[in-house]
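Standup notes
- DV: blocked on the single-chain target, sequence here:
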Amino acid sequence: MVMNKEELIKKNLKTEIELCGKTKTEIAKELGISKPTLSQYLSRRILPSFTTFAKICEIIDCSADDMLGLH
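- DV (later): unblocked, structure below
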């Protein structure tokens, strides 16, 4: 089955956050969002806004290209 871009982003987001070495609480605090909101991103229920997506990439030191599956 071919994964659409939205599903790929959600999958990569979850994987990269889990691999970054920071706790979900730390990431949520740095983003200025609640832990339940971060959990919704990780459970693939919702996608973050563009601004939040960019902040996540910066916080976990992951390029947007990698997160978007462009590499």
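- Follow-up: The radius of gyration is 11 Å.
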